[in-house]
Amino acid sequence: AAGLPGESPLVRVLEDESRSRLGRFNQKDVSMVFSSEANNKALEAIFSSQLFYENRQERFIRSMAEWLPRKAENLTPYTMALIAKYVARHRLREPRLLDTIANFLLKRGEQLDSKVIQKLVFPFSRMNYRPSNHGELFPKLEAILEQKAGSSPLATVNILMSMFQLSHFPQSVLHQVFSPAFITNVMSSPYALIVRRYLSLLDAAVELEFREYSGPRLDPRYRVLMFEHALTADEANRKYSYKGLVAEALRQLVGEECYRQDEVLPPGYCTGRVGGTALLPPAALGTGVTPPWPRGDAARSCPCRVVLSVNDKWHYCQNSDILVGSRAMRDRHLRLLGYCLVQV
């Protein structure tokens, strides 16, 4: 911040001092951070710092998890949304923090607008975690969405996506978002494409996971791919992903002529394929293939329907073997499509 070069002696001394103090965060430190709304910037600075990123499971998070449930009622929605944002960003599956956010949402949800609600709901799907009060919370969220769906379409579909990833399908809200009125409203908005992408993925999830649903569906003319093209790692980022390593190994194993990259499996999951074997790169979700897709006996009769799923550390909750919600939903869909899923 002072404009000093990172390698200067002063910066190094300050960094060393910060690291030595990080392990001594205590209850008093947490209370001081939350003592006034003016300290939201301090909280954001802590969560954004490289030191916190490197030591995200240190005493600060444990202290926050102990302190927050007792003080949550005194926090503003902005502060709670800020906590939710960084809990999700760092993939911190700390049940006490997540349940505190859920209780805050249950008590104040009716007073919040949809954009704030989506920020508070996102950590649950990100961490693939159903809060302990979900039996009360999810129906309340459905009732709120029924009232506010039209006022903020993008926030509405984001909340729906979070609930779908947790295998909860609010039927009454689906009636609204797939209605002609909602679609007309979306098409005249500046975020029409992203909402159509989310609605397309939601429609595919309904087809695969919510078979008893009998309400309106997304008009086929509005279906689009979640991504316009396959997500491929460039040379600079390839070192952070195992996808490139696995792809190169498969090329050497079966030969260049037998390996084809970036094919698409319905309902739009982007893959690479080796003969009858598919290699699935990270975070490549999409929709756009008209149902029905092969399932059951028809799917099992297809030869060599195997998906090799290459998971990097950021596809899991921090220090856990639990997949993040979007990854878990994708795996469910592939299995429902009849694929044998092999995790790497």
Automatic annotation (TrEMBL):
Location relative to the cell: Mitochondrion
Cellular compartments per GO CC: mitochondrial matrix; ribonucleoprotein granule
Alphabetically ordered keywords of this record: Kinase, Mitochondrion, Transferase
One Pfam entry name: RAP
Record has Methyltransferase as a keyword: no
InterPro entries xref list: FAST_2 (IPR013579), FAST_kinase (IPR050870), FAST_Leu-rich (IPR010622), RAP (IPR013584)
Domain of life: Eukaryota
Gene Ontology molecular functions: kinase activity; RNA binding
Record bears the keyword Mitochondrion: yes
GO BP field: mitochondrial RNA processing; regulation of mitochondrial mRNA stability
Domain RAP: 306-344
Primary location: mitochondrion
This protein's name: FASTK kinase
Organism: Todus mexicanus (Puerto Rican tody)
Highest classification ranks of the organism: Eukaryota, Metazoa, Chordata, Craniata, Vertebrata
